[in-house]
Amino acid sequence: MNIDTRNIVLDVEKVRKTFGSVEALGSIDLCVSAGEFLTILGASGSGKTTLLRIIAGFETPDSGRIRIRGADMTWASAAERQIGMVFQNYALFPHLNVLENVMFPLEMRKVRRVAAAERARATLDAVHLGAFADRYPKQLSGGQQQRVALARAIVFEPSLLLLDEPFSALDRRLRESMQQEIKQLQTSLGLTTIFITHDQEEALVMSDRIAVMGDGAIQQLGTPNEIYYQPNSVAVATFIGESNLFEGAPDERSFRATSGAQFSLMSSTECTRMLIRPEAINLRRESSAADPKELNVFSAQVLDRSFVGGLNIYRVRISEGDEIRVHVVAREAAVYAPGEMLQLVIDPADCRPLGEKANP
Q1: Angle, vertex CA 45, rays to CA 44 and CA 47, nearest 5
Q2: How far apart are CA 322 and CA 257, in angstroms?
């Protein structure tokens, strides 16, 4: 995704933050354009929460700049930044009803009560909670509380919306429903949004772009497709999705694994590591007719099979000794038993060399 530099809402420039001797962030650069949904993805301790708190104004950087719509907000308070935020625990006021909770940020901005109530009701309608205006937070489900928190965060038309792992307390079905609902609302309202999560699936489903963080740095920044299919390091490849990783050496337009298995590639490489996603691999019985033009055909023995949510997940061993995981849509394929000998087929386009280190 190309960023229109004339339409940047958030510009993080060389932001660094330490806590004592620990470097939480090391010279972070990041731009977010108007209407974009950007996810900051990382494990605990990666630096994503520190970056969020600096953007929101809850922490100040040791160095660097935060600009919102071109204005330097590095030292501005959280209130001055016109940022809406949805926290993990929603942070609703238990003594205020739903309408009053959503009105609160407008009243803090000196909006007249009648006008604030009118705008709050319209926002509640947008999140499908117009009929719940008189209820209190304790009378709502977790998903409904989340919608109230979202309405409160957007009612004053913020320059930027920050979502701090908002689905962590929801069960899977409700989480998936809320992902879809928030994404639809974000798109329809054109909200510039930064979403913080450790959940790779959420990031892939919801984002226009993903910034994968680790050790206080952005390891890779790109679209979900780029992050998943073109990871620039072993760290990113193993964090996003399941991976078959091979170490070895390049050999013209091929890659020779340490086991001796040789994989044809689409082009030459200098990389010493290679990635193959489990769903990119085909299995078939050895009796199947082979196409003489096929490359990367290996003899393989099934070690075990698991059935997970519509997938058959196989662990197989090719004749060179490498163990490989293969994902096959269950209803579209034969079932292979442990011990059965098969052919394993991989398109060269799905053999992806990996760089030695991450370069955003």
Answers
A1: 110
A2: 9
Tokens of 76: 């501005």
Residue in the structure block whose two tokens are 């939480």: 24
pLDDT in tens, 107-154: 999 999 999 999 999 999 999 999 999 999 999 988 899 899 999 999
CA atoms within 13 A on the CB side of 77: 2
Structure-block tokens of residue 136:
């209190």
Domain 5-237: give its CATH superfamily.
Answer: P-loop containing nucleotide triphosphate hydrolases (3.40.50.300)
Question: Which residue is it, tokens 């919801």?
Answer: 206
**Segments of the chain assigned to CATH 3.40.50.300:** 5-237
Kindly report, residue by residue over 281-333, the tens digit of the pLDDT.
999 987 666 666 788 999 999 999 999 888 999 999 999 999 999 999 887 66
Kindly give, in sequence order, each residue whose CB lies less than 8 Å from that of residue 308, ignoring residues fewer than 6 positions away.
none
Degrees to nearest 5, angle at CA 218 with 227 and 183: 55
- Tokens matching residue 123: 């926002």
- Residue 147 has φ and ψ, to the nearest 5°, of -65, -40
Q: Under CATH, which architecture does the 242-353 domain have?
A: Beta Barrel (2.40)
Total length of the chain: 360
Single pTM value for the model: 0.88
Q: At what angle do helices 142-154 and 172-189 cross, to 10 degrees?
A: 20
Provide the CA 169 distance to its chain's centre, in angstroms. 18
Strands, sheet with 297-308, edge to edge from the N-terminal-most edge strand:
281-285, 341-346, 297-308, 311-318, 323-329
